[in-house]
Amino acid sequence: MTEDWKKNMVAEKGKMLLEIVAPSRQVVRSERVDEVIAPGSEGEFGVLPGHTPFLTALKVGMLSYREAAEWHHLAVDWGYAEVGPDRVIILAEGADRAVDIDIAEARQAKERAEKALSEKLEHADYEKNRIELLRAMIRIQVAEKHGQK
Amino acid sequence: MPSLRDIKRKITSIKKTQQITKAMKMVAAAKLRRAQDRVIAARPYSRKMLAVIANLAGRVERAQHPLLAKREPKQVKLLVLTSDRGLCGAYNTNILRKAVETVKEFQAQGKEVKVNVVGRKGRDFFRKRSGYTLGKVWSDLGMIDYEKAADVGKNIVERFAAGETDEVYLLYNEFKSVMQQKVTLEKLLPVEPPMEADPFMAAVDYLYEPSPEVILGSILPKHVEVQVYRAMLESQASEMGAKMTAMDSATRNAKDMIERYTLKYNKQRQAAITKEISEIVGGAEALK
Q: What's the burial of A92, exposed, middle or buried (CB within 10 Å: 0-12/13-18/19+)?
């Protein structure tokens, strides 16, 4: 099981390999990424080719990567990032590319979460709704970025 | 001797059954395609996760995390994945036979076994029989998605972390090919990280954020969920494969039966005609 994933793991010269996988599918795979900005659990971080090996947890947030001059944005919900000199591997619990996000649905989710938060809640419910709100806001942000282009 | 009408009726009824089995075969084939795609799509994630765990486990004291801790196995849990529906050949029979064998084996080693079941077929099987401790049951899950599988995984992790079980095994049908399913028994907990880490990654010193212990602590439960998810997808693809094969042979059997009955029908019709002619001839002779 561990052998064949090492194959085809070569980035183009001076670029990085970026792989983003969610439990149900592979979301992104690119061999020519110049820069990645990801929401680490301890704060946002940027990766350029030649980065020190680095393993971190991710929180809910926006992940951006650049191929030459073109930026791409995704919304990720939790996960892990493994960074090497010539590759970034993201294991995300959920990952949506900007094009896949339904902005109307995200807005509704935001409203739902806001309404729930305005009422008095048990701690667990509060946390759940707070995260829902965060996710919805990130989704809207990512979708809007995409729309601006 | 059945009359001509009886045979005709029988042929019609077999034809109807054949239409149903044919349709079921087609439905299973379509679902199989989707299930197969999902099995393949789920592979990169579980593979990469295993690689990350292998990388981490080498740097953390084994006993530090409860999901890695080996205990004296007194309480063992067996999670059996079966289907909700029948008409899929020996699919459920095979896995349940193996489940019974496994339980007996554990019991012979002096372990207490609790059976957890996914799927209606497995639930009914263990409910009807005495001598098994049936724990939580999940059934009618429909198409598997990650949330459903994570639910099952979370429950198992919680019970294990609480010390209720010392070992958890997973029994499911691995998807080999459309015609072939393999009943597979896997140890789910405690997690045994693969020892050989990726040489690229092992060679260098890593930066961890937060600490390796914290990352490992959050990734291990997720790993169990992913394993359950993968097994569920495999088992669903196997089910559709088994169903397709079973329905295909049912359709073929129906065709054979129709041929046989048609032959019988024709023979009998011929016999009736011959009889009638000889009667007419006999009657004409008598009038002379």
A: buried
B88 a catalytic residue: yes
Do A92 and A27 meet the contact criterion of CB atoms below 8 Å apart? Answer: yes
Q: What is the pLDDT of residues B133-159, one digit of tens each?
A: 888 889 888 888 888 898 999 999 999
Alpha helix segments (H runs only) across chain B: 4-57, 91-108, 120-128, 146-161, 199-203, 212-287
Which residues of chain A lie closer than 8 angstroms to B49, CB-CB? 80, 91
pLDDT in tens, A87-128: 898 999 888 888 888 888 888 888 888 888 888 677 777 878
* Alpha-carbon separation of residue A21 from A53, A77, B56, B64, B103 (angstroms): 19, 12, 19, 28, 37
B62 or A12, which is more confident? A12
Strands, sheet with B75-81, edge to edge from the N-terminal-most edge strand = B133-138, B112-118, B75-81, B167-175, B181-189
Three-state secondary structure call for residue B167? strand
Please give the angle made by the CA atoms of A104, A106 and A109, to the nearest 5 degrees: 115
The whole-number average pLDDT for the span B33-44 is 88
Residue B154 has, within 13 A of its CA and on its CB side, a CA count of 6
- Here the tokens at position B206 are 């890593």
Which one is catalytic: B52, B57, B88, B152?
Answer: B88
| pTM of structure | 0.82
Spatial distance between the Cα atoms of B27 and B253, rounded to a whole number of angstroms: 19
